[in-house]
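tool_log.txt
---
The assistant was asked to compare two proteins side by side. It first ran the structure predictor on the initial sequence, then on the second. Raw inputs and outputs are pasted verbatim so the downstream comparison step can read them without reformatting.
(1)
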Amino acid sequence: MSNKLFRWGKKATGCMLVVGSDIQQLSQSFAETNLIDALHVYHVVNDLNQEKIHIEKLHNQLTVVRINLIDSHALKKLLSHITSSKHQIELCIFQAYFSHAREMDTLLSQEAEHEWNNNGLSAVSLSQVMIREMLMRQSGTMIFLGSQPQSSAYYDPLSQSSFAAIRALSQSLAREFHPKGIHVCYCMLERWQGNREDFVNSVKKACLHLHQQPNSTWSQELSLGI
């Protein structure tokens, strides 16, 4: 009985979500940093083929989640798990899908739909849920990692349009929710290099800097020259 009372009375602690498709090293880097700050990391892999949400706690600082972000029922289950684990969301980082340049005339309609679902639609679905949770405390940070407008050499028009849509979403959310205590920022990268330690560390430091900014100096966009 005393153990149950302890769990019920336990105060919620902060957590962060790192969401995307190539985020393993970034999540691990955050988990190692947060050994000091005690901010639990949810490594959330966006997989449109995932029929049921899969959650596995690897250790005290890191939980791995596989989820289809456009499945609203799965998102509700994720939030329920976070709440039952006595965590509250302080920071969410969404990594857009950085595909390589492709020939547009050979791109199938199914591939185009998958690209949009994996990027734009997933970003909308996730941000709606995250910001709704943050509004309860009028506090939190939502960061989108995407490409720079001038990165046309690396990405085809479809990918560029997906990034542009996420950037527009970020700008719209920032205008609406900055006055309500939610920091929303779009971070521009030339390309994604998730296997490079120096790149991952730079992205991590930038995200932590944005999260820790006082609201009088909040940035809506940040260009990372890495």
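(2)
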Amino acid sequence: MPKTVIIGAGSGFGARLSIDILAHPELREGTIGLVDIDQESLDLSAAYVRKVVDMHGCGVTVEASTDRTRLLDGADFVVVAIAVGGPAYSGAPYYHEIAIPKQYGVSQQIGDTVGPGGLFRGWRTAPEMCAILADMERQCPGAILLNYTNPMAMLCWIMNEVSPIAKVGLCHSVQGTFGQLASYIGKPPAEMTHWVAGINHMAWFLELTWRGADAYPLLRRAMDDPDTYAKDTVRFEIMRHFDYFVTESTPHMSEYVPYFRKRPELIEQFGLHHRDPEPQASRSGRWAEDSPMRRQLDGRDPISLVGSHEYASFIIKSVWTDVPGRINGNVANDGCIANLPQGCCVEVPCLVDRTGIRPCIVGSIPSQLAALNVSNIASQGMAVEAFIERDRRKALQAVMLDPLTAAVCSLEEIRRMFDELSQAERELIPWLA
């Protein structure tokens, strides 16, 4: 039976993913390994998963360790959802990646996948991702790596360059947005279909149907309703001008393009805001004393064995049982999208069965969508080269190519901002110091 190792399990993600796995009757045997460098959080996650296993009589062995090499032997699947250098969204280094660009007028609401925040997060995270791949090559070379760590496109591109390990990047934006679109047009998701391709957080609903007919006329009609438009201002505005709906949320999408965050009045007009993370790291979150997961662990609330819409457990099930499935995954562009650069990271439909994860050939996407994608791929590609070559000048140029940063700052301002960020993170990214 399958052995799944979850690296970064202490945040609560490991517990959530374990429930997803155990929600499939076919996967209630085998091993779930939980890894986290935070012993306290790891212990809570392990206790939670063991409680679920015992409650439902599953034949799953739960292992836990702060050292991943103790659990990787014989793994079939390795799920990675990590933060390097500090908590993902509070304290340093995340605080610096938001606060320093803000001083130069670069407003970031999330700052984990593009922009100065996303690029520096990628450079500080990539060495650990590469180390995980190296451990897998030694201990479980036949395993599939399922990555949830951001910046998704940049990290997956780097991993594709450095290791032959089978891998795919996973996000919930396609399935999450599909549900939102169904609600916008007032139709049941079960009666709808989609075909989505592009890059992570900027993939496009190339086809959206309801009962076999094009659903875009219904979506355009919904957009004309002020209340519906207000729920998703940036994405509807992009659809109004570029014809297709994009996968990631209004706050995320506003960071990928130069149109929405360059002036305070635009930020206000589109209902956006600037993130102001705490300077000091916070331990609040899924294991906070009164959080739902802590209440479930303590027996104050019941635990329901119901899976989420995250793709990981469906991949494990399809590979292990040979029951075919379809996901959207982040993979190398080996001809998947004809008018995007070869080798970049694209998000496309993938078929999954015992043979693995097989990306679909999409062909060319509409040229205006490709142009928007390429504006981000250029920065991502330069960032990947910078990391692999440890080239500080290319890293600076990657920030200069970022669409949002370029909409706000002069080249000299970007250089000064880059120098400040490099100094703030010199211990995490020494080759930039």
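---
observation on (2): The chain has a mean pLDDT of 97. The domain at 93-109+170-276+310-433 is CATH 3.90.1820.10 (LDH C-terminal domain-like).
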